[in-house]
Design a protein that fits this description.
Keywords: Cell membrane, Membrane, Symport, Transmembrane, Transmembrane helix, Transport. This protein has 22 helices and no strands. It is mainly alpha-helical. The chain is globular and about 60 Å long.
């Protein structure tokens, strides 16, 4: 790697952070509003009946979107390794804009029967395809555009942007709840955030066209290697790929439990009003967002493993008491404190999971190496978390879900305790064993 970046590729740290994360914000706004507004549009696409049954139907489509993520991880991860991080980031946000628009205009069950649900399903498949590639493209871009001693801090903004997208979605939900009647929200108000998402994605498309490619990828691109981004090349790093799946398992289940599912849990189980449940989630997520750069920066000092291990123990031992207490909470303050306690634990995973995965792979297969295994883990565990929770609830054994989350965290904890530290890994090409875990570091443009 070169010791300095060419003047033509110079960029400021915040320009790289903004370029790599602002589209991620829109992607996750669209992804999250589906979950947060599901209580309002569940009845629009399925026959009238039991509320939990309708939520199960929409949660099933939500999970199906996750199963499209491995396809997106493969196709768009390969695209990012062969065509560049910038090109992949632009493509993913285009797909998300189309999917949001489809949901916004989807006809209801009363109008066309199950055809509306079919449109919803197609939109979710496109969202899954898009997000499957967005995560890896964003993770690799932010990691490659960072100085070695700042990678944890800079890459933590991936979850800052993801959380900000969720906050904007929740904020819009709270605004609509206070300005529109409940009947209006169930009738047509739920379409508003999807229109907003489609328009915002179009704006980000224009912004991302002005991004510069990372120096690390530009140097790799000059080699014209035909093996870049191929499944065959990924199999050469199958140990790292398996590691990504295992270390993601506990983190993704915990993350989706305390973010996308939390509002429904507080409403359906704790008995809070939808507006109060949304406000609890908003406040907890805002503080959670602020913690990400602090934890990412801490990992640059003490390493990635200590944070992952802290999350593993905290989630394994803390999930059952926190979820049990949340189910019996009768105050806004109590629900907020418990939710925040859970998200503080989850921060040990979210703040650094992107950089850890990117540091495991060499440049020519980094995007695919991050995207496909991560998407598989999310499809199996993250995307099904809400469905599993509702399944336990419908079966009258809701506490079983708490133990399920704890068990997933325990599996990942074993991986955290045995994996190597990646903080000092060089982002250089090494066919024999991935990025060298040595002190050799390159000076990048950020």
């Amino acid at each position: 790697m070169t010791d300095s970046a060419p003047p033509s590729r110079a960029r400021t740290p915040w320009r790289a952070v903004l370029g790599g994360s602002i589209g991620n914000l829109v992607e996750w706004f669209d992804w999250f509003v589906y979950a947060s507004f599901a209580t309002y549009f569940a009845g629009a696409f399925f026959p009238k009946g039991n509320d939990t049954a309708q939520l199960l139907n929409t949660a099933g489509i939500f999970a199906v979107g996750f199963f499209m993520r491995p396809v997106g991880g493969w196709l768009l991860g390969r695209f990012a390794d062969r065509r560049g991080r910038k090109a992949a980031l632009t493509l993913t946000v285009t797909l998300m804009s189309v999917s949001a628009l489809l949901i916004a205009i989807a006809p209801t069950y009363d109008q066309v029967g199950y055809f509306g649900a079919a449109v919803l399903l197609v939109a979710r498949l496109l969202q899954g395809l898009s997000v499957g590639g967005e995560y890896a493209a964003s993770a690799t871009y932010l990691t490659e555009a960072s100085r070695p001693g700042r990678r944890g801090f800079v890459s933590s903004f991936q979850y800052v942007s993801m959380t900000m997208g969720q906050l904007i979605g929740l904020g819009l939900q709270i605004l609509l709840q206070h300005t529109m009647s409940d009947d209006a929200l169930h009738s047509y108000g739920w379409r508003i955030p999807f229109v907003v998402g489609a328009v915002a994605a179009a704006v980000v498309f224009w912004l991302r066209r002005n991004l510069l490619e990372t120096e690390v990828y530009a140097e790799e691109d000059a080699r014209q290697d035909q093996e870049r981004g191929t499944l065959g090349e990924l199999l050469r790093h199958r140990k790292e790929a398996a590691l990504v799946i295992a270390l993601t398992m506990g983190g993704t289940v915990a993350y989706y439990t305390y973010t996308t599912y939390l509002t429904k849990y507080l409403s359906n189980t704790a008995g809070m009003s939808k507006s109060d449940a949304s406000l609890v989630s908003f406040c907890a997520l805002f503080l959670f967002m602020l913690l990400q750069p602090l934890a990412g920066s801490l990992s640059d000092r003490i390493g990635r493993r200590p944070l992952l291990i802290t999350f593993g123990f905290g989630s394994m031992l803390g999930t059952v008491p926190i979820m049990t207490a949340l189910s019996h909470t009768d105050s806004f303050a109590g629900a907020l404190l418990l939710s925040l306690a859970a998200l503080v634990i989850v921060t040990g995973y979210t703040s650094i999971n992107a950089v850890v995965k990117a540091e495991l792979f060499p440049t020519h297969v980094r995007a695919l190496g991050v995207a496909l295994p991560y998407a598989l883990a999310n499809a199996l565990f993250g995307g099904t978390a809400e469905y599993v929770a509702l399944w336990f609830k419908k079966g009258g054994a809701e506490s079983g879900f708490y133990w399920y989350v704890s068990a997933c965290a325990a599996v990942s904890l074993i991986v955290y305790l045995t994996m190597r530290e990646t903080r000092d890994a060089a982002l250089s090409r090494d066919r024999a064993g991935g990025p060298a875990a040595s002190g050799k570091q390159q000076k990048t443009a950020v």
